[in-house]
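Give me the fold.
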Amino acid sequence: METIKVKLTLTEGILGTSPFNEDIYRDFIGSKAPDASTIEDEVAAIGADAVTEKGMTGFPRDENGKPFIYDYQIKGFFKDACSMLNRVGGKDENGKKKKLNESSKLTAFKKIIDGMIFVSPRQIPIDFDGEVTLCQRPLRAQTMQGERVALAISEEIAAGATITFEITVLDESHLAAVREWLNYGKLRGLGQWRNSGKGRYVWDEIDDSGNVVGGNNEYVKARK
């Protein structure tokens, strides 16, 4: 077992994913949380009474009003990253899948991420200067009645914010894959609307003394 500490630095703004409508969150999203007993706590953290826009999404807040993301959102990103990176390489002349990266070497990767890779703390604070803003964008969908357009509104925290947490792996051989997934965040980030580039980040691996020992953040002055 090994634990690493990482610090993400956003290069693009990140959008909140939690619906401010309390009933929507409890029924359709909170129920998908890994630990169903925490649903009421998560609903309370959203602060639904403070916002009247039912279609709006945002960040849950801690007891001091600080925005945060949940640990399972990082694990969800890992699953997305592994799924995409697993497609790299295609097949060889014998029809067998080429294993060109760490992600392609994992079988049943969702079970591995669920049961052998852990993120802490549960509530991961987002450190930033300035104010939380709003991002509005149209959502288009083709239906039997033709194209439908709706307006989506989400809270946004600007680029430059940092997110620091720890990752524990029960099998140290999985660390290479974890670092590969973290690198993927430079291309495809966290949160909503990530296909547009929202939530992209670079990251640092930090030792017990606070020194940068790895990652892909070439802009940190401490790394020389």
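Residues 19-52 form one domain.
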